[in-house]
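Check this:
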Amino acid sequence: MAEAHQAVAFQFTVTPDGIDLHLCHEALRQVYLSGLHSWKKRFIRFKNGVMTGVYPGSPSGLIVVVAGYMSYAKYAKIDPSLGLFTKLATHMPVSKYITEDGQRIAGGVLVGTGLWVTIIFIMRSVLKSLLSWHGWMYNRHGNVSIGTKIWLVLVKLFSGRKPMLYSFQSSLPRLPVPAVKDTTKRYLESVHPLMDDAQYKRMEGLAKDFEKNLGPKLQWYLKLKSWWTSNYVSDWWEEYIYLRGRGPIMVNSNYYAMDFLYVFPTHLQAARAGNAIHSAMMYRRKLDRAQLKPLMALNTIPMCSSQYERMFNTSRVPGVETDAIQHVNESKHIVVYHKGRFFKVWMFYDGRLLYPREIEQQMERILADKSEPQPGEEHLAALTAGDRIPWAKARSTFFSRGKNKQSLDSVEKAAFFVTLDDTEQRYDPDNPVQSLDRYAKSLLHGKCYDRWFDKSFNLIVFKNGTMGLNAEHTWADAPIVGHLWEQVLAFDPVIMGYTEDGHCKGKIHPSLPGPQRLQWDIPEECQSVISSSLEVANALADDVDSHIIPFSEFGKGLIKKCKTSPDAFIQIVLQLAHFRDKGKFCLTYEASMTRLFREGRTETVRSCTIEACAFVRREERLRLLRLAAEKHQDLYRQAMTGKGIDRHLFCLYVVSRYLGVDSPFLKEVLSEPWRLSTSQTPLQQLDLFNLKKNPEYVTSGGGFGPVADDGYGVSYIILGEDLINFHISSKHSSPETVSTTLLYLQIHTVCSTMTH
């Protein structure tokens, strides 16, 4: 074990001649290498902080500006200090300390540095002003206007060269606060197709009253917050939507991502874990060094990167009233769960990251370990799957001292959590429906005690080598985790690869310390809490009706030939499918990002529009389809550019609660259920996945649980030209929903008929 290995580094015996000290040179070497690695990491962070702090300038730019200024001053025969030292000499005898030539040089350096700082400030200000313009989004695909082309050239000109991940953070504009009048107008338009005349007239009256009376007062506080903070939405969204929820986060908040659909790189569980863990740690290294390129729209327009900061070394910590996010700057280990036991696995040895074959070696040791779980250990993670208050109380009572605290710290401060699952999951072409359904449910909730749902993400590797992710939603949105997952999948079979017999490439380490078994002392009272949490979690998991199927009759290739946005097309398909299923429309949520702004997260696109409803009800389909698609695209643009409805109304409601005032309008708006909650999983690193050359490297995408008890959760991913994967969830307990009905009888039929 690692602790035992380090414990023998220093040994001493007391003799009549004094203390005889014995030093283990290998252990001292490991201490030295570990410290060297730590200081290298600190230096890199410091350097990156400097580079990001002066971007779009650079230290080399400082040298150029200072040298250029000094050359100009010499050529023009002017004082490089611009009289700085002459003025200073009236107050103190400068000549006693610095010669005249030294004064000119020092003054030139100071003035040149000031000029360099001024240039950086101007470039940042101009870039922020440029990025506040969003007219480029209204150009039709493939038809860029002259004005947009000029704007793109200016953005590139002021963006600097070779940006790092966080280079643009200080140049991104703040999320604007829409006018109350505009928000209420858009809201009324969004609910009009869902209400009869009497309901709409009543809601219109509430909206107008709010707009004239309480709204302006709440808006003033919101404006003040928008001036003071980087983003007026994100901190309240994280706290009130996620951290203050007292129900289970399993199913209700956590989501999952799947493996390749058709490719199975190896059948060895330990080997797949070795490559995947190493790839994830290499991604973390790039994050720490800010070597990842910031996501750029049109390869030019930067997106906010702030959500990446808490991807690793992060855990949600339960509280009685509200949870908290715990993030540590550095973690050198992961925690692995297998058959009821927890193992701490160090990721570094000899001052370097373990190679894939060495990680596989550690996983093999865990798989070969035949020890039994300690009392209460097997189902311990069920605490993270049940209600938050029992978990918070149990944590403070039973895990605040001794070995329990040490072991819990190891879990919560791990880089991430790994489960070596003892079940087999895989897409089976002979049984596609049931195989993918089982696979999705296993990733979403597993056995309810074999995932640590509080961790930023869980890597799950199944017995047959298939794998997947389960991610906690508070710290970031799905595209951030998707970015990591795309790299893990791309690096696994292509770049790192496997030997012919399925092992990771490389050699085992002859003296690598083995994994450390975490120790627990869980009393019967705590075991009772664990059992209660497991009972709650099992009931929730059993209620999930999950259904996935790859739709391969056509994809975005055919949709684009119809001159329609693929996303808009699918959203309209969902409206038609839901209407055929239920005979009515419902409030529909589609997630859109607001990362064009600093610390932006998401906004809601209300996809059930008047135009979409007109398309569903009438026979004049093609013209109405295009109108509905254009309307949806317009709503998507509004959401991305800070003109959405729901985040503004949410923040107005939060202000009203702080002020202790009631708003019938806001209370009713925020109580409306989202019976159709949808999200597209984007492919962000298209250079990693050339699906034209390698169509077999398609992923199944990912999904989430239903938001409303009587509603559907629909996630979809558009892959290549001819594949769309749908993930649909609902609850068995609701007589209103059946996932298979929505998918097979409606979505599949609608998709097939709409293209004719």
Summary: The chain has 24 helices and 22 strands. The chain has five domains: 2-53, 56-134+143-162, 180-245+644-671, 247-545, 552-641+673-756.
